[in-house]
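Hi, here's the filled form for the chain we discussed.

Project: internal
Contact: R.S.
Residues: 84
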Amino acid sequence: MKKYLFILLILLSVSTFAQSKTPEGVKQTTTVNVSSSKKTGQIITKSGKDYPVWESARGSFYIVRVSGNTGNEYKQYLKKEDLQ
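And the returned structure, exactly as it came back:
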């Protein structure tokens, strides 16, 4: 009986571990919420790509970039010197 319980426990733990992994080559993505932000009409060039500049509800300026490792979008906030 102990043998069967031990084997069942191992099978359950292996199946749980196998389901939690993301298949290779598939990137999980998240999106950045910009609903309360507005575009300023300015364009910033970073690493050879052009990005529109957004202004947050509190007055901060940022661009939306995509991470090369994970594929997730993130906000990169800008200094006032970067805008001029």
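Let me know if anything looks off before we file it.
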